[in-house]
């Protein structure tokens, strides 16, 4: 396990709130307090600002790339309560949808796994979650109250349940594509929601996941489809909780607590879902892995300047 | 702002502390008159219940208890050990300090009151818990009384300061220094107290205006704000204690006296104030900027407070009988209105309207700090880790962030393992790989597999296998003779002892005869012997043999037959073998060997002796049949549970799909074992095991020179389990940044494999240097190619070719915009491309010649639409074989349904010399052929049958995939079948057609074919959206299509013409379309052309047999072309009778080796009858020159 020296550094004169690479790892979208979204082209160790998207009337909190099969699409959400969908065509970026339903800051947006469709979940401080669906050239939405005190984060479950990896040769058979996500809010709990075909809405699955003693700032559902489902949650209470569930646990989630020195802002799973990156208010980044005994160990600290591979 | 809740009380209030669900405690406000003029004094608890959608705007109290006196102020202290929900303290008008246990209050207990202390001589105006020492409480009241309590022992309070003339109106603890607090007096002084010295340390002159409220800076211990209720100068002052002479800033905006301040703890840029002007204003205290105000209410707002933990919420209490809980944002005002409206239901509108706050809805424009995510980390494709964090800047400088992208490797093991493996591959040292794996193998099974693979590498793999098996089996002796003996016994035990070697005895017999002198007609000769002798003397070997056979003089019969030629010999052999009774078992083996039919051995030999069976196969099996024999043997072994042995058979037989099945189960077991060890992470174990699996497969592919023939199929791949693993592996490898490697494996996937495209494209995008340029594809090709060494199979190349043929449908991303979505959302949409298929014919025949059809039918896109096959490296290899430039321009050859690859390849691949049309995928490599050659019992027969027969036999066998039901069918089934039967479609072929053509879910995929005109379609520009998934030879072949021979073929030539298949295509069939015979069929050659066909095929064979190996491609190409001609002739199409005549003449010249004239004639035919000359003419031309060059 190693982490090379920072291969690329961008310094901005405004505060950034999100930075995500696209599906190919070729473009970096960042968003900032200055109400703009910036898109950088990454080439090796260099990067070039190619676009600045303006339109938000407040700080932009979150950007998220859609799966390329739906086009070159970026979603953004901000303090202005707006969710924008941007699309690039012929090298031109255009805002193709302006979603202004929410009454307060939209803190996070998240695209669903592409298998389940072109769906965007939005978490808002107004206590609701909305799910936009792009279908038939049209955006439709479902909104529902999720965390009355405000929703901070949302993360989709992988399209198939772990342990039921269906062969790609027979899509549509085996376990159906699920629409399921987790939200975290100012009420210190996580809630899991599943699409209910009957009511055409999202239904809360079992009881909220409780344990955090302060706001849940971020949630991340591991994309892994091996064995277990993993959800990581980052909280103001200076802990990260890792919730696991497998086919035997019947909807019950076990929980492990990782302690930190500072509030934890962000958790992110690696693409294979086996490593968890945690970033805290002390500006430190740590990477965590679970061993087979189910213990989580820090694997890397990216906090100090110019720190390269630190292996524990 | 959004008004969330209302409490209908005129009351002092306090928020519950902490992160739990927000509650509000209220105490009836002193100095106010209730709407109902009641004198009740209550302490009440309210739950905002924000998650409850049923809850209306107006709340009902959760708990309500009577209090002794009215409240000036109320505070809720943080939880302590004794009071898990904290303590509620009331500053009462009567001077007593009442303490309640919040938990008991919540629970509804009556005895919530903890203590009542009366230190004050008059009303307590203000109180506050120490934010840093939650058990410490300060109260301030009339006559300058200021007390400090420990809530655990409230009676033991101490007093600060002395009696003063003025009342203290407010008290506030410093947020940073626990022992500092400040009070504000009605006399206009702000006093800062130090608990350590228990003295006032500083006094601020608040412009001599009464101080109504105090608020310390949340972060800066020397700053505080004060306000005054004086209506003449309603200002808020910001003080810095370092300069107590004058306020640092003055906030002006209220029109009347200010009654309350609240400085946000989470964002020091936010301050709330409210007052007698009925307004609640939000400020930036540092700059004095007024952000805005909440809607004005109808009476004084006397208290405002941020929720101490969730500053999204704040509450304002006013004398109009309400406490309003609100947010700061309303980004969608229209929606809120409805909400409010709903809550008015059932109430009198006018009474309500009067008390509704006035003014526009307010939304806080500045984003509060608690929503600002300062740091973050995310993962990106290709092992990238992106982090961002704030950069420390000088105060006053704009805040900045730094974003870093680092390369990250989850598991260095995986990275190095992959690298190492790829390097060895590049170095080409497969043997070393096998060797090292063998050494590292943990299980015997694994070891054996690697050893076998190593063995396969050798020059004479079969010999090696024999030796390997030899080594393994002590039972097998070293000597060849001995081995034979052993072999002979393995069919049954009682065979032991009948050990005389058959061949040996043959020669012995022979020897005996030569040793003994004899008379032609001996005295003891019987009549029979005499007859034989006579026949021999007359040279009637056949007759002599027959007599011998009748007399069961086998040895004699053989001897005589030996002189009578091969045919006779065979006859005797057959006769000998056929009399099975009483024969030793070895003869059965021998019979198998002699007739080159080892299926008997494979299927019937006892499995205990499988190794011997294997040795036999290695020794005798025809190369073409060998893999299938091995497979069959492996199947049998597997059925009996010995995975390792089965795997060996598959390995030896180069049956990747079967081996993979076994390896995948091994993989799963290994993973489980790894998990059980428990020292590593789940993922690492998984990844490591997967790596080993992939290495094994890769090496094997290389060793066996395996060529995946199914990559062009749209579905039903035999190797789909492997493809899954490839995808997964590519994902993992890519996640470790090794995109080239990932790409290499993705290239091995079929074009239409789900997810393959996306994944491939992802890596291409990720690796390419420039986006949005067509050149990108080339560059990616360049980068990826070198990593794909020699064994880069035709798979990608193949698909690339087929892409270009069909218009690159597999490329989801137009090069102009690599990020754009695939254009063809429905891959099945472009039906036109398939229209050329004449439905009736399709029903009737499965056409091997289809190999040409795509070129003819779909060729044009190559030049017209010219979609760059940017998805993968250019089809260099194929181009070499297929540089048939003329084809593009020419009218297409016969309209055939798209070919079944299996059908095309299997019969011909082995026999390079046969003048049959090679399939489009150029199966010139052994490995490729081996893997697809049908495993019917009759393969031998069909492969050695004369060319036309083989062609004819092909269609029924087309769909044989997998183990056939009845593999031991006697060869004659094919060879001797009545010609008419061969054209009957095999039931399997028919059944399989619809799924091949019909896109899943499309109700009627054939509809567009209605009334189409074949020729027009053929020539029309196929620009209308090339098909994507259907583009491959669309059969996939039903995996278990009926046994080729098992089912009785339809009889009667009509079978082929009356299309039984149900699909609409039969209805759509153009009545004009003439039934077509399958390519390769030679039974309908008109008499006029028979001579021509005979001569040309003869000459072709002659040429093929003698041509130098280096010309093999040209020879094959020529054969292919000549066969096109034959197909035309067979269908009596294109070539007109007089042309046939001319061609016959040409053939005769050729036969007469009159090359100059033949060439002349050829030129003249080509000139005069251009319209009839298709691709075949080039073949004729080449044949002439080849024939000329062949002695």
UniProtKB/TrEMBL annotation, chain A:
SUPFAM superfamilies linked: WD40 repeat-like
InterPro entries, alphabetized: Sec13/Seh1_fam (IPR037363), WD40/YVTN_repeat-like_dom_sf (IPR015943), WD40_repeat_dom_sf (IPR036322), WD40_rpt (IPR001680)
Main localization of the protein described in the UniProt heading: nucleus
Domain of life per record: Eukaryota
Keywords, in A-Z order: mRNA transport, Nuclear pore complex, Nucleus, Protein transport, Repeat, Translocation, Transport, WD repeat
WD repeats mapped onto the chain: 53-86, 209-243
Location of this chain's protein in the cell: Nucleus, Nuclear pore complex
CDD domains assigned: WD40 (cd00200)
Similarity remark: Belongs to the WD repeat SEC13 family.
Name the record gives this protein: Protein transport protein SEC13
Provenance organism: Apiospora hydei
UniProtKB/TrEMBL annotation, chain B:
Entry keywords, A to Z: Cytoplasmic vesicle, Endoplasmic reticulum, ER-Golgi transport, Membrane, Protein transport, Repeat, Transport, WD repeat
WD repeat intervals: 251-283
Membrane association type: Peripheral membrane protein
First-listed, main subcellular location of the protein, grouped into a coarse class: membrane
Compositional bias segments (type: Low complexity): 766-777, 822-856, 984-995, 1020-1033, 1052-1073
Transmembrane intervals: none
Biased composition (Pro residues): 811-821, 866-876, 996-1006, 1035-1051
Record's subcellular location: Cytoplasmic vesicle, COPII-coated vesicle membrane; Endoplasmic reticulum membrane
Domain of life: Eukaryota
Annotated segments matching region Disordered: 766-1085
Compositionally biased residues, Polar residues: 928-943
Pfam families, per database record: SRA1, TPR_Sec16, WD40
Start and end residues of each Sec16 Sec23-binding domain: 532-753
Domain SRA1/Sec31: 1053-1186
Alphabetized InterPro entries for the sequence: Sec16_Sec23-bd, SEC31-like, SRA1/Sec31, WD40/YVTN_repeat-like_dom_sf, WD40_repeat_dom_sf, WD40_rpt
SMART domains tied to this protein: WD40
Family note: Belongs to the WD repeat SEC31 family.
Function: Component of the coat protein complex II (COPII) which promotes the formation of transport vesicles from the endoplasmic reticulum (ER). The coat has two main functions, the physical deformation of the endoplasmic reticulum membrane into vesicles and the selection of cargo molecules.
UniProt-recorded name of the protein: Protein transport protein SEC31
Source organism: Apiospora hydei
């Amino acid at each position: 396990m190693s982490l090379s020296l920072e291969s690329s550094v961008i310094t901005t004169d405004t505060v950034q709130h999100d930075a995500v690479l696209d599906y190919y790892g070729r473009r970096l979208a960042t968003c900032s307090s200055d109400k703009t979204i910036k898109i950088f082209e990454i080439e090796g160790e260099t990067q070039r600002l190619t676009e600045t998207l303006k339109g938000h009337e407040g700080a932009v909190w979150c950007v998220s790339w859609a799966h390329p099969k739906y086009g070159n699409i970026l979603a953004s959400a901000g303090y202005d309560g707006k969710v924008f969908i941007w699309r690039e065509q012929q090298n031109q970026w255009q805002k193709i949808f302006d979603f202004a339903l929410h009454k307060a800051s939209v803190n996070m947006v998240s695209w669903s796994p592409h298998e389940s469709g072109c769906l965007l979940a939005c978490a808002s401080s107004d206590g609701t979650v909305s799910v936009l669906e792009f279908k038939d050239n049209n955006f439709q939405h479902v909104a529902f109250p999720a965390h009355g005190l405000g929703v901070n984060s949302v993360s989709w479950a992988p399209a198939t349940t772990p342990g039921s990896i269906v062969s790609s040769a027979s899509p549509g058979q085996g376990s159906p594509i699920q629409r399921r996500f987790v939200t975290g809010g100012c009420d210190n709990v996580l809630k899991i929601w599943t699409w209910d075909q009957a009511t055409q809405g999202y239904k809360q699955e079992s009881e909220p996941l409780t344990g955090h003693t302060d706001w849940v700032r971020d949630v991340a559902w591991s994309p892994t489809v091996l064995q277990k489902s993993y959800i990581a949650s980052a909280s103001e209470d200076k802990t990260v909780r890792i919730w696991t569930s497998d086919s035997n646990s019947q909807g019950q989630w076990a929980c492990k607590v990782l302690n930190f020195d500072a509030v934890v802002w962000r958790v992110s799973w690696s693409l294979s879902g086996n490593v968890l990156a945690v970033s805290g208010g002390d500006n430190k980044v740590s990477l965590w892995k679970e061993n087979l005994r189910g213990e989580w160990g820090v694997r890397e600290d990216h906090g100090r300047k110019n720190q390269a591979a630190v292996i524990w | 702002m959004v008004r969330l809740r209302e409490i209908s009380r005129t009351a002092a209030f306090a928020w519950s502390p902490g992160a739990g669900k927000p509650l509000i405690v209220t105490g009836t406000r002193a100095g106010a008159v209730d709407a109902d003029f009641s004198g009740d004094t209550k302490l009440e608890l309210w739950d905002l219940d924000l998650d409850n959608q049923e809850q209306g705007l107006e709340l009902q109290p959760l708990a309500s208890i009577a209090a002794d006196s009215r409240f000036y102020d109320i505070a809720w202290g943080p939880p302590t050990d004794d009071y898990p929900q904290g303590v509620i303290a009331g500053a009462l008008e009567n001077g007593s300090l009442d303490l309640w246990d919040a938990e008991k209050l919540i629970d509804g207990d009556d005895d919530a009151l903890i203590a009542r202390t009366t230190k004050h001589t008059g009303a307590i105006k203000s109180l506050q818990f120490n934010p840093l020492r939650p058990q410490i409480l300060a109260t301030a009241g009339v006559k300058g009384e200021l007390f400090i309590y420990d809530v655990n022992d409230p009676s033991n309070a101490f007093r600060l300061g002395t009696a003063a003339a003025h009342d203290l109106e407010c008290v506030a603890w410093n947020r940073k220094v626990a022992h500092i607090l400040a009070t504000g007096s009605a006399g206009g002084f702000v006093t800062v107290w130090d608990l350590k010295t228990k003295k006032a340390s500083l006094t601020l002159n608040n412009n001599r205006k009464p101080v109504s409220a105090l608020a310390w800076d949340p972060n800066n211990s020397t700053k505080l704000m004060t306000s005054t209720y004086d209506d003449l100068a309603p200002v808020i002052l910001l003080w810095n204690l370092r300069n107590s002479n004058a306020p640092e800033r003055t906030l002006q905006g209220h029109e009347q006296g200010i009654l309350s301040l609240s400085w946000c703890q989470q964002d020091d840029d936010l301050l709330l104030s409210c007052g007698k002007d009925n307004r609640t204003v939000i400020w930036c205290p540092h700059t004095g900027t007024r952000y805005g105000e909440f809607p004005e209410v109808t009476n004084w707002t006397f208290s405002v407070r941020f929720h101490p933990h969730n500053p999204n919420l704040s509450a304002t209490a006013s004398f109009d009988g309400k406490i309003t809980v609100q947010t700061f944002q309303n980004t969608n005002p229209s929606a809120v209105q409805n909400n409010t409206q709903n809550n008015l239901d059932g109430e009198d509108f006018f009474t309500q309207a009067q008390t509704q706050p006035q003014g526009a809805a307010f939304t806080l424009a500045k984003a509060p700090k608690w929503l600002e995510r300062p740091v973050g980390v995310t993962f990106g494709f290709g092992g990238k880790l992106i982090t961002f964090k704030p950069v420390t800047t000088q105060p006053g400088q704009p805040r900045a962030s730094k974003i870093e992208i680092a390369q990250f490797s989850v598991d260095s093991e995986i990275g190095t393992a992959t690298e190492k493996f790829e390097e060895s591959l590049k170095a080409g040292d497969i043997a070393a790989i096998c060797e090292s794996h063998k050494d590292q193998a943990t299980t015997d099974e694994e070891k054996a597999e690697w050893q076998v693979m190593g063995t396969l590498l050798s020059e004479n793999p079969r010999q090696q296998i024999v030796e390997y098996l030899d080594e393994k089996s002590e039972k097998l002796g070293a000597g060849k003779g001995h081995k034979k003996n052993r072999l002979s016994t393995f069919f049954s035990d009682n065979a032991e002892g009948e050990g005389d070697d058959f061949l040996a005895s043959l020669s012995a017999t022979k020897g005996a005869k030569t040793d003994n002198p004899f008379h032609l007609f001996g005295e003891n000769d019987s009549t029979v012997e005499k007859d034989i002798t006579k026949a021999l003397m007359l040279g009637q070997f056949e007759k002599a043999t027959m007599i011998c056979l009748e007399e069961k003089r086998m040895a004699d019969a053989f001897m005589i037959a030996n002189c009578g030629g091969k045919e006779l010999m065979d006859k005797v052999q057959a006769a000998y073998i056929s009399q099975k009774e009483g024969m030793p078992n070895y003869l059965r083996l021998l019979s198998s060997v002699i007739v080159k039919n080892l299926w008997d051995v494979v299927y019937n030999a006892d499995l205990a002796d499988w190794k011997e069976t294997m040795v036999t196969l290695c020794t005798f099996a025809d190369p073409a049949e060998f893999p299938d024999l091995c497979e069959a043997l492996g199947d049998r072994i597997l059925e009996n549970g010995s995975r390792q042995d089965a795997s060996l058979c598959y390995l030896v037989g180069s049956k990747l799909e079967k081996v993979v099945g076994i390896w995948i189960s091994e993989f799963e077991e290994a993973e489980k074992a790894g998990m059980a060890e428990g020292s590593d992470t789940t993922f690492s174990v998984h990844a490591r095991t997967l790596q080993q699996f992939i290495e094994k497969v890769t090496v094997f592919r290389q060793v066996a020179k395996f060529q995946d023939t199914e990559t062009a199929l749209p579905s039903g791949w035999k190797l789909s389990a492997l493809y899954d693993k490839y995808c997964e592996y590519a994902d993992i490898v890519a996640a470790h940044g090794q995109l080239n490697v990932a790409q290499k494996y993705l290239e091995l996937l079929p074009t239409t494999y789900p997810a393959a495209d996306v994944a491939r494209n992802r890596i291409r995008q990720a690796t390419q240097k420039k986006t949005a340029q067509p050149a990108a594809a080339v560059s990616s090709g360049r980068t990826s190619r070198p990593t794909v060494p020699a064994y880069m199979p035709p798979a990608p190349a193949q698909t690339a070719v087929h892409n270009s043929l069909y218009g690159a449908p597999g490329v989801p991303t137009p090069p102009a915009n690599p990020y754009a979505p695939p254009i063809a959302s429905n891959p099945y949409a472009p039906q036109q491309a398939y229209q050329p298929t004449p439905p009736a014919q399709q029903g009737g025949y499965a056409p091997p010649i289809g190999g040409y059809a795509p070129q003819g039918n779909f060729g044009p896109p190559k030049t017209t639409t010219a979609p760059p096959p940017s998805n993968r490296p250019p089809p260099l290899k194929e181009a070499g074989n297929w540089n048939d430039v003329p084809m593009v321009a020419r009218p297409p050859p016969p309209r055939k349904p798209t070919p079944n690859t299996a059908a095309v390849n299997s019969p011909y691949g082995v026999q390079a010399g046969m003048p049959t049309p090679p399939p489009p995928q150029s199966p010139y490599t052994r490995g490729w052929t081996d893997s697809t050659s049908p495993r019917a019992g009759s393969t031998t027969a069909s492969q050695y049958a004369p060319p036309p027969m083989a062609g004819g036999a092909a269609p029924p066998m087309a769909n044989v995939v997998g183990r056939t039901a009845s593999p031991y069918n006697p060869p004659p089934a094919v060879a001797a079948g009545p010609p008419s039967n061969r054209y009957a479609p095999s039931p399997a072929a028919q059944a399989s057609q619809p799924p091949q053509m019909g896109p899943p879910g499309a109700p009627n995929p054939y509809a567009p074919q209605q009334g189409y005109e074949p020729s027009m379609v053929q020539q029309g520009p196929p620009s209308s959206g090339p098909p994507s998934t259907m583009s491959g030879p669309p059969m996939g072949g039903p995996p278990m299509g009926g046994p080729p021979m098992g089912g009785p073929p339809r009889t009667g030539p009509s079978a082929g013409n009356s299309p039984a298949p149900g699909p609409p295509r039969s209805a759509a069939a153009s009545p004009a379309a003439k039934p077509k015979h399958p390519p390769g069929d030679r039974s309908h050659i008109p008499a006029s052309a028979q001579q021509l066909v005979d001569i040309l095929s003869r000459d072709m064979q002659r040429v093929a047999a003698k041509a130098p190996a280096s010309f093999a491609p040209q020879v094959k190409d020529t054969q292919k072309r000549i066969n096109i001609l034959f197909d035309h002739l067979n269908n009596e199409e294109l070539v007109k009778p007089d042309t046939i005549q001319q061609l016959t003449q040409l053939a005769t010249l050729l036969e007469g080796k009159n090359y100059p004239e033949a060439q002349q004639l050829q030129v003249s035919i080509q000139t005069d009858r251009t319209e009839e000359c298709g691709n075949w003419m080039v073949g004729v031309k080449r044949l002439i020159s080849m024939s000329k060059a062949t002695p």
